[in-house]
Amino acid sequence: FKATKRLMHLGNGIDLTRFYPQARQGNEAFTFLFIGRIVEEKGVLELLNAFENVVSQDPDVRLIIAGEMMESERDQTTKHRFLERLREIPNIEYRGFVEDVPRLLQQVDAFVLPSHREGVPRSIIEAMATAKPVIATNIRGCREEVIDGTTGYLVEVHDETQLAARMTDLVKHPQQASEMGRAGFERAMKHFNEADVIKRQLDLFSTM
Predict the structure, then answer these.
(1) Per-residue pLDDT at 204 exceeds 80
(2) For 127-143, b where at least 16 C-beta lie within 10 A, e where not — what string?
(3) Which of 127, 160, 169, 183 has the most crowded CB, counting CB atoms within 10 A?
(4) Residue 4 domain-assigned?
(5) Residue 133 covered by a domain
(6) CATH code, domain with 67
(7) CA of 200: how far to CAs of 126, 190, 208, in Å?
(8) Predicted confidence (pLDDT) per residue in 54-112, tens digit
(9) Residue 17 confidence (pLDDT)
(10) What's the 3-state SS for 2-55?
(11) Would you say the C-alpha torsion 61, 21, 36, 98 has a positive or negative sign?
């Protein structure tokens, strides 16, 4: 309902001086990373089920999970189920709250965020900026960041089978995973630089 000349897309961004590609550090086994609160809406239980399928096919693959289990969360059921599943599935490392996210991203090969709903998740942008391929759900926010088949994969919400298949694709094709990560980095540079976002905001304020 507005004239095009009265519209401006500000977007979202991150500090690209903190997040940037660096040679993979740590264990050589293919490693996935999830960062988020340990609650149902982040899809963490579907991730565990999917990873159980992946690790049954490749016993070397690993999953690192970072995120708080806060007592103030209404969803305490997921936390207890999460802890139970950690004891049942091999090769999962739960880190809890992590301050140095850039360093953590340098230790993994791919990022996974199977959320049920999101705004504009900064964690995906951070992973893209460090040249990691991203698997996310086909929801608002995630699909504005991830280009399916180019910078990673989009899967349907709650679809553990599809999630496991896409994770396995990355494990079996590390060169393709690396190329997707590079494409994600280029997209982050072009669209999600915090400095550019701030400049657009300042330009807007200067016209008011």
Answers:
(1) no
(2) bbbbbbbbbbbebebbe
(3) 127
(4) no
(5) yes
(6) 3.40.50.2000
(7) 20, 14, 13
(8) 999 999 999 999 998 777 667 678 889 999 999 999 999 999 999 999 999 999 999 99
(9) 85
(10) CCHHHCCCCCCCECCCCCCCCCCCCCCCCEEEEECCCCHHHCHHHHHHHHHHHH
(11) positive
Exposure b/e, 6-21, CB count within 10 A at least 16 = b: eeeeeebbbebeebee
Tell me which residue has tokens 């910078």. Answer: 151
Residue 108: give the domain boundaries.
Answer: 18-203
- Residue 184's CB is within 10 A of a number of other CB atoms, namely 28
In contact, 125 and 151? CB cutoff 8 Å: no
Which residues partner with 134 through β-bridges? 111, 152
Predicted structure pTM score: 0.88
The two tokens of residue 163 are 């999630």
